[in-house]
Target: Carrier domain-containing protein
Amino acid sequence: MPQTAQPLTQAVTRILFDRLNIEIPEPDTDLVDGGLLDSLLLVTLIAQLEREFGISVSIDDLDLNLEKFRSVRRIAAYIEDRRNLTDVA
Model:
């Protein structure tokens, strides 16, 4: 796991709690199946992530099954991947 994964996981958890009032028990908790994240909250979360981390979430990244956004850990990994793409470009 990359060294930045833990701080990113904590930052995503903080955003979910502070901005969306969603308390996450564990980084691997399924946000969708657990009923914690619906489509409206997902759009709000994406806007927060883009603002907070300076990333851009493309429509191609929003797979129909939303695998990249199902848990805090997956969201943190997605942010790390987007940052790496930006660093390479």
Observations:
- The domain at 5-88 is CATH 1.10.1200.10 (Non-ribosomal Peptide Synthetase Peptidyl Carrier Protein; Chain A).
